[in-house]
Amino acid sequence: MVGLGLLGAPGAAAGAQSESSAVAVTHSEKAPGGLEAWWTPERIRRALAHPADLPDASASVAGGQPRPDGAPQSVLAADAVGPKAGSGEISASAAVSRSQRVKYSSAWPNVVTGKLLYAGGACSAAVIVSNNKNTVWTAGHCVYDRKNKRFRKNFAFLPAYKNGQRPWGLWEYVRAYVPQEYIDSGDVRWSDLGAIVLRRHRTYGNIQDKIGAYGYRFGGGPNYSNVQAAGYPYAGYNRPDRDFAAGEYMMYCRGNTTDASRFNPRDNRLRMACDMGRGASGGPQVIGIASNPQIVGANSHRNVSTSGAYRDLSLYSSEHTTLAKAVINTAGR
């Protein structure tokens, strides 16, 4: 697969086990504090230099796999939770398909988006409301390496990362979750999503209490207005790489999402006009950004040519329905 997608990196297959028929989990092999020590400046530098590539949309959409759920869909939703202290800033600007830098990445609600590191690579992710108050949402290919058939390893989250600065430090993970369907088939229509449960920080406590968390709305369909997609892209469609400063800055697009294949009832992926490419994998697609921000998708894949170039402006998310609900209900408890 090519495009904004799977990064080859070592993983921990031995730690994987099925927590339910729909969700698989891996556990950290490090004791508290061990991951923070493991993530030396050199390892962070190497991970940041290898952003995840989004899978090619055509590679796994062409098949005729049945949906893992039925219709109609019920909606599972939760409201956003702001930080217990601190101010917010968000601009309600017009549609943005040519991604721009987030001006105030440490202000609510931007602060809950950050870099997701794993051994050998990097994605994007965002804090999502959960009962454990320590969960981040991302893409399945950021959690599980299908090429090497194993979970990625040594996840760490850097909220509001900006040009080498880590204003809220490094958060260790304890567990990582991905749909079993993604492990089995890699079908991006409904399974390229995942969650990471973080360890309570020794200084800041629960991440949701300290910096807040996006809510979510799963099962509401693919058509949303005024959606904001965010992440840390290193490249983009029809645009020089230098515009993205090697993924050192949070960037965003804003616009409407539509049904990626409105004549195919098996394909309800979200599609929006956005030029972000590799490195933006796993970043949140959010509605209600200026009021009650809720995740409705995660940056998953693009259409990619045989040369590896992005073919158009469309950025896709897997539909967030039954499998998204299973992951958040399992990981977030």
Written description of the protein model:
The protein has 333 residues and is an alpha+beta fold. The protein has one domain: Thrombin, subunit H. 13% of the residues lie in helices and 28% in strands. The chain is built from 7 helices and 19 strands. Strands 3, 4, 13, 14, 15, 16, 17, 18 and 19 form a 9-stranded mixed β-sheet that branches. It has a 6-stranded antiparallel β-barrel with strand order 5-6-7-12-11-10. It has a two-stranded antiparallel ribbon with strand order 8-9. The protein is globular and about 50 Å long. The relative contact order is 0.23. The N terminus is likely disordered.
Short description:
The protein is an alpha+beta fold. It is 13% helix and 28% strand.
Mean pLDDT: 89
Q: What is the first-to-last residue Cα distance?
A: 33 Å
Shape: globular
Whole-number total of structural domains: 1
What is the radius of gyration?
A: 17 Å
* CATH homologous superfamily label: Trypsin-like serine proteases
Supply the CATH class: Mainly Beta
CATH architecture grouping: Beta Barrel
The count of helical stretches stands at 7
- Uncertain runs are 1-19
Report the sheet with the most strands, covering strand number, pairing sense and barrel closure.
9 strands, mixed
Oligomeric state of this protein: single chain
**Class by helix and strand content?**
alpha+beta
- Give the DSSP E fraction (strand runs of 2 or more residues): 25-35%
Tally of strands: 19
Task: Give the SSE order as H and E letters.
Answer: EEHHHEEEEEHEEEEHEHEEEEEEEH
The helix content is: 10-25%
